[in-house]
Amino acid sequence: MPAAVQAPLPGTAIRKSAPLPYYAQLAEILRAAITAGDLEPDAPLPSEAELGAAYALSRTAVRQALGELAAEGLVRKEKGRGSFVRGPRRADFVVQEMRGFHDELTGQGHSVDTRVLDQRIDASTADEATLLLIPTGADVVRLERLRFADGAPICVVQTVVVAARFPGLDQLDLSGVSLYKVLRSDYGIEPSGGHRMIEAVPADRTYARHLGVRSGAPLLKLSSINNAQDGQPFELFTAWYRADRTTFQVTVADRPPR
User: Fold this and answer.
1) Is 208 exposed, middle or buried (0-12, 13-18, 19+ CB in 10 A)?
2) What is the crossing angle of helices 48-55 and 22-35, to 10°?
3) The CATH fold of domain 91-249
């Protein structure tokens, strides 16, 4: 059983003098532990009596707190078994649509944050040059970002674009904006199709640390080549998503007759 709900931790005790009701304080403590990943999906929560004893609350206050979390979709109650962590809402992406991370998730009601890990001009590798139709060693903007949904880390994204096509992009603050919105407004680029591939991979130590998972935990790796409205490839990106917080939608259709 996670220690976070067995006994009050520093900074997580119920504040008797606070204006926030006791049940709301307990709900906030459990909500923070769930969204931070301290309480894993499907993990059982202590009973109402155990939570009441741990936080010196009445069973009524505990029941109100669990009811609030259940209404938010973070906890599920099973008759005769108790309450279980449902986990944060999954981020849902439609693979066929040319929408960026920011637009996809804000459209679903998620809050989105970004931490820029790397942003610089670099020489293209032979593989990057082949895919972007540029000479090997030509300048590219290399961008690496850690993306958050509802306060929890969800993916690491590495983006490579041709520097000559996006002058000054390496100097822009991209921590709180949609990259595609910047490319549209500042450079006149309209994403218009491409190719994407999804595979399951284990998290290495670096990505595990960034995403708050164990080393070797399953990640969904999405690789993409995106074209602009002129048909020319303008972007390569590779993203590593937490498999427990992400779903990808794929629409299939009958193959047209020859």
Assistant:
1) middle
2) 110
3) Chorismate lyase (3.40.1410)
For 150-229, strand residue ranges (E) read 152-162, 194-202, 218-227
pLDDT digits over 32-82, tens only? Answer: 887 777 777 778 888 899 999 889 999 999 999 998 888 777 788 888 888
pTM of the predicted protein model:
0.63
Q: What is the pLDDT of residues 81-104, one digit of tens each?
A: 888 887 555 665 555 455 555 556
Residue 23, phi-psi category: left (phi > 0), alpha (psi -120 to 50), beta (remainder): alpha
Written as one letter, the residue type at 167 is: P
Are domains 3-85 and 91-249 of this chain identical in fold?
no
State the pairing for strand pair 246-249/91-94: parallel
Question: Starting at the edge strand that comes first in sequence, how are the strands of the sheet with 112-123 ordered?
Answer: 112-123, 139-149, 152-162, 233-242, 218-227, 194-202
Domain 3-85 indexed as CATH 3.40.630.10:
no
Q: What is the number of alpha carbons within 13 Å of residue 238 lying toward its C-beta?
A: 8
Would you tell me how many other CB atoms lie within 10 Å of the CB of residue 42? Answer: 10
Can you tell me the distance from the alpha carbon of 183 to that of 211, in angstroms, rounded to the nearest whole number? Answer: 27
Is residue 109 within 8 Å of residue 74, measured between CB atoms? no
Examine the pLDDT at 112 and tell me if it is beyond 70: yes
What are the residue boundaries of the structural domains of the chain, listed by start? Answer: 3-85, 91-249
